[in-house]
Amino acid sequence: MNPSIPPSTAEYGGDEVSAIVLDPGFSTTRAGFAGEDTPKSLIPTYYGRYSSDGQSKLVFGDDIFVTPRPGLSIHNPMGRDGIVEDWDMAEKVWEYAFTSRLTGPKPGNPLQNGLNDVPEGELSTEMEGVETEEKLLADSPLLMSEPGWNPTKSREKTIELAMEKWGTPAFYLARNGVLSAFAAGKASALVIDIGASNISVTPVHDGMILKRGVQHSPLGGDYISSQIRALFKSNAPQPITITPHYLISSKTAVDAGQPPQAKYKTFAPDRAPDASYRTLLEERTLSEFKECVVQVWPGPNKLSATGPNGVSNEELAKSSPGRPFEFPDGYNQVFGVDRYKVVESLFDAKAAIPDPESAFPAPTPAQTVPELIKNALNGVDVDIRPHLLANVVVTGASSLLYGFTDRLNQELMQMFPGPRVRISAPGNTAERKFGSWIGGSILASLGTFHQMWISKKEFDEHGPNIVEKRCK
Amino acid sequence: MAAADVRDMLDLPAEGQPRPHKKQKVVEKRPEGITRELYALLGERAPPIAINENRYKGRPKWTSKKRVQPWRMTPFINSARSDGLVLRHWQRQHESAKVPALEGSEMDVDEKKEDNADASTSDNVPQQDSIFAKYNIKARVPNRYTDEEYNRHLKNDDWTRQETDYLMDLVEEYDLRWVVIADRYDYQPHSVDGDSNNTSALVPAKQYRTMEQMKSRYYFIAASMLALEHPPSEMSEAEFELHEKMLKFDADRERSRKELAALQLNRTADEVREESVLLEELKRITANEQDFITERRELYSRLEVPISVGNTTMYQSSQGLSQLLQTLLQADKSKKRRSILGPEGGAAPSPAGATPAPNAPSSARDSRADTPNATPAAAPTNKKAAAAAAAAAAAANKEAQQQAVRTLTPAEEAKYGVQHHDRLAPGVQFRSDRAQKLTQAKSNVQTQKLAAALAELEVPLRLVMPTERVCRDFEKLIHSVNLLLEARKVSEKVESEIRVLEAAKEEREKKAKEALEKDGKPEVKSEQQEDQPLPAAAEESAGDAEGQEKGATDESGEKAGGAGAGEEGDGPSHKRSASVLSNASDKSTKRQRK
What is the pTM of this model? Predict the structure, then answer.
């Protein structure tokens, strides 16, 4: 390709206006420029809060994992259902997502940035009339994503934030189901999004969600973590405790199943971080466990069912070789059939490992993935159901569980033996993780999309309710 | 062992060996930089040194010496927007109007305008319209009705004016995407009333509108508005079609169709499997039918080939067969192919080997004379020997059958088509041929009569399925048809004879009357003469056919004869045959008297 000749616009329909795409999730927040293939800025939505010298301080981004500061507590501005709860902090986290990698911090007021210290009383009065610093996103349109069940109030709040606080010239709020479908190159699709706090099924028709079909349930990645914790508690030789890396000072190798031999770090009670910090870091170990060990029973039936030749699937699963995992403290064990059990409840509510201490109540059958899909399809017109089944898009980082799409395919084929079922799940990890961001990146860089933006002028004219009219 | 031997043993055709391809001559391309003459001197093999010299690419040739065209962040507007939002994108800046256009002409024009303006002003006042504005297309929705129009034409008990408005708004908003419209349809009837006191009383139970209801309402309105705009008589064809289509929308039918679609979607796995199995079966059956039809056609075309009657007899003896083999071998050799028999067969060459295939019989005779060892059986005793061999074989067969694991019951014999022959004719013949021969009578006329009789009985001349039983019955049938034909012939003869005699009698009576008038004679003698010839004639014809079935023939002959006489009128042939018959009857009477 000759770099001196631009591709003709008709070729790809792109017309980039350096828009920023923000895809906030419960676990991570993705931000980047439209037209790129992956988000430049990927930060955890969690933030840390601690006090030092009597001042309350905040930590954002990957920094939250690094230092176990005294009294550091971890919070999340998002609710478990993917709706923003703490707007002030959400704003700060999102701002961090832009400024850390995309726009850079705007130069502060020269009077206050500490470089131009003027003696007291000499403050020149003529400086006060000067316009305060430029807004954060003054020259980039902003495209944000939201879950399909986002309430009106929350949507209005979002546009207010973008227009008034960040000063974006144009704004749009798109459903992440639609964006994931776009990322897969489809205008109509059944989007199955397996996220950290939620799984959702969104029927999309011609680039618009069908609200009556949108289904979601809390059996996401965090639920799987809670199942793994329940498994560790009831582990056979001895219960496994997860000790995060920051509590280990040294360890020696032990044989499988032997108690760990490690030296632990201890923190004085007043120096120790909050319990939420430990939970966050344990979660990191658990996600490693999910990546390395956990496997979805590939089907064709439930794990508890009996196979065609009289052998129960569980026996079959037992006969497959186990997978070893070493914990940060050196304890290691081979996980056999248990690695299937922790995710089985995504498809079979009865298979959930009971854990009374868990934050998640036992799942109901209606919360499982097959039921969600069934309900979603029952909510839409019968004419488009076969088309949706032929365009199933799987996205979300938790859908990367080994064997997930195979099982999903089996379940769908069993539920709907008639129509053709076709799952489109990108094999590329990044495309699966950032599906809705990539869709937003595509959408915001399209030339035809520019008429859809809500401009500042329109916002001023119609007020925040315009988001309901325009972002359908 | 050669491959040919193996082929011989396995009875494989010998021609499965394609000759190795001729080696393609690889024509090497003449490298650049060498003259043709020099290259020709090099011969076929190029020298082992590289002739091509490696050269560097050299400097790229610049197509033009124009200045580099800079890219600028330029603002633009989109005319599809109503608010004039200014966005900025990177745009190539053209230096002058002479620069050839790289992009769409539309953009070019805009940019030229921009170039004319000052650079600084162009930053602030964007004149360039986005090229994507042209894609802003809305679906065509009907004109909105006025109050009067609504009240006069569009009133409906089921739909309030407000709800209709709401529906029309949604249709416009979602560009007739019915799936989305039905999904977002959420009409609150009381919101229009406004007064909160009455709401509790007035709010009707919120009814759920199906997509069919919405569609039928919308189509009714759209069709009515179209008709109001242009009366149907003035509509263009497309408009009229649309109008008709919208008027004919049937919500009930649509609903039942969707119910069926839902049923189809929610089939169980068994039903789906059954359907696929049935479809597979159907496919198989149709494929088989096709095969069957082609096979049958082939068979018929083979049967249609005229039967060679002439010289098959000469191949029915083993000697004849060996002759045939020889001729075939000769023909084979003459074609210079690999022989059928392989090396041993080639060891018995003959001078007549070069004779071509068409005059095979004569050459076969020649070759037999030259190579007597090829036909070990003596020529004159050939037939007897063959018959004896066949009998021996049959006997051996019988023995073998008796020695076999189990003897077949008569029912099983019938089932498997096993037959026992006391005597077998030598050689091979088709059963159908034998049946065919029966239909060929000695005379052409007789053959035609036979064919006519068979046609009357609706029996095909050529048997469709010449099984053994069918052939036997066919033989019987032909036999009886022959007999009947004979009998008819006889009865015709008798008939005509009677007529002749009657005529003669009349004549005589006339004469007698005349005589009586003269001398008056009695007429008893003539009656006696009339009775005589009938049995005699029957006897004669029966003697021609079969002696033992005389009585039966007599009866049937009379019947058939009567029928035949009724059908066929009396012609000149009758008269002739009558005269012949009278001669014959004279003879027969003489014989009887003897």
Answer: 0.64
